[in-house]
């Protein structure tokens, strides 16, 4: 799908010291991420603390990031939640503010059947003309989107891909095998990027690309050009950073790290909190081992 590229950053949502969304800092971060390797951005996803953002905040954030990015990269709006009706309404409003694509997470808490999941997604995507990416993350939603259901959903014209964060490579292989050529299967876990590329996936919706976007991009380019050994070397080198960014619940480590590097994004909103002292020390020690790709001049 034109405009939906290989390296997409699941962007944090910056907050000011009072805990309000800092839209100007979000614009600066969006541009800095594109300058450091990202082809596109997810706004108001898991890493963007979507459960704590109001509808008004999300829509203003979608518009602000799209204004900053322009045509340089894809802006995917996270508009899915556990309410089909609310997801439909927010998706329509996101389209009206000019985003490029929609990210739809498996609904949490209610634990629908696979048929319920199919009808949920079908109802949302038929309300928009935008390309839609499914998002399967069982560790957070308590339910898995079965590969058979993902394949069935892929037959709907504007469902063009899936972000797979199940860490189940057999399941992911079934989705790739069962969908048409051109269906985009993104890794939803940075640790799975290279294995999913090897299975035929298209790229990653990444967290560590906040810091090492050019290096993640290089790893993917090496693999796709046939230099699998070099790609594997880069992938292995980045794994400790992946572990550090998930030492406690995402995005707390990512926000902590950005703040420590000088790019102020504020604290996470409750119920998330800053990393504890031991976790913070681990993050600091890990960051010290990496070249940071995020532009220094963007860190205000």
Walkthrough of the structure:
- This protein has a single domain, classed as Alpha-Beta Barrel (TIM Barrel).
- With 300 residues, it is α/β, with parallel strands linked by helices.
- Helix 1 packs across helix 2, helix 2 packs parallel to helix 3 and helix 11 packs across helix 12.
- 46% of the residues lie in helices and 12% in strands.
Briefly note the structural class of the backbone. alpha/beta
| Gap from first CA to last CA | 35 Å
Report the CATH architecture: Alpha-Beta Barrel
Order of helices and strands: EHEHEHEHEHHEHEHEHHHH
What is the number of helical segments per DSSP (H or I, 4+ residues)? 12
Show unreliable segments.
Answer: none
CATH class: Alpha Beta
Using the coordinates shown, work out and report the CATH topology: TIM Barrel
- Number of spatially distinct domains: 1
Please summarize the sheet with the most strands. 8 strands, parallel, barrel
Placed side by side, the strands forming the largest sheet appear as: 1-2-3-4-5-6-7-8
Shape: globular
The number of E-state strands comes to 8
Helix content: 40-55%
% residues in beta strands: 5-15%
What is the H level of CATH, i.e. the homologous superfamily?
A: Aldolase class I
Rg: 18 Å
Mean pLDDT: 95
Q: How would you describe this structure in keywords?
A:
300 residues; alpha/beta; eight-stranded parallel beta barrel; globular
């Amino acid at each position: 799908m034109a405009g939906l590229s290989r390296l997409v950053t699941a962007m944090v949502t910056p907050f000011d010291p009072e805990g309000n969304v800092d839209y100007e800092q979000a614009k600066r971060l969006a541009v800095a991420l594109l300058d450091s390797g990202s082809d596109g951005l997810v706004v108001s996803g898991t890493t963007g603390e979507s459960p704590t953002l109001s509808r008004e905040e999300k829509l203003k954030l979608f518009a602000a990031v799209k204004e900053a990015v322009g045509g340089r990269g894809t802006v995917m709006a996270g508009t899915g939640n556990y309410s089909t009706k609310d997801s439909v309404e927010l998706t329509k409003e996101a389209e009206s503010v000019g985003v490029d694509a929609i990210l739809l997470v498996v609904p949490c808490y209610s634990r629908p059947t696979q048929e319920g999941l199919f009808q949920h997604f079908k109802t949302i995507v038929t309300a928009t003309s935008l390309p839609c990416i499914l998002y399967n993350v069982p560790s957070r939603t308590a339910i898995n989107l079965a590969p058979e259901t993902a394949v069935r959903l892929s037959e709907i014209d504007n469902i063009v891909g899936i972000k797979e964060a199940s860490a189940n490579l057999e399941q992911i292989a079934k989705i790739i095998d069962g969908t048409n050529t051109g269906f985009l299967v993104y890794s939803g876990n940075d640790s799975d990027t290279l294995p999913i590329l090897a299975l035929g996936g298209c790229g990653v919706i990444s967290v560590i690309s906040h810091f090492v976007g050019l290096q993640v991009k290089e790893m993917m380019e090496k693999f796709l050009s046939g230099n699998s050994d070099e790609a594997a070397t880069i992938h292995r080198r980045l794994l400790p950073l992946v572990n550090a960014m998930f030492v406690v619940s995402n995005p707390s480590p990512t926000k902590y790290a950005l703040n420590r590097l000088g790019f102020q994004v504020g604290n996470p909103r409750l119920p998330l909190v800053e990393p504890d002292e031991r976790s913070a020390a681990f993050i600091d020690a890990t960051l010290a081992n990496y070249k940071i790709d995020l532009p220094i001049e963007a860190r205000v």
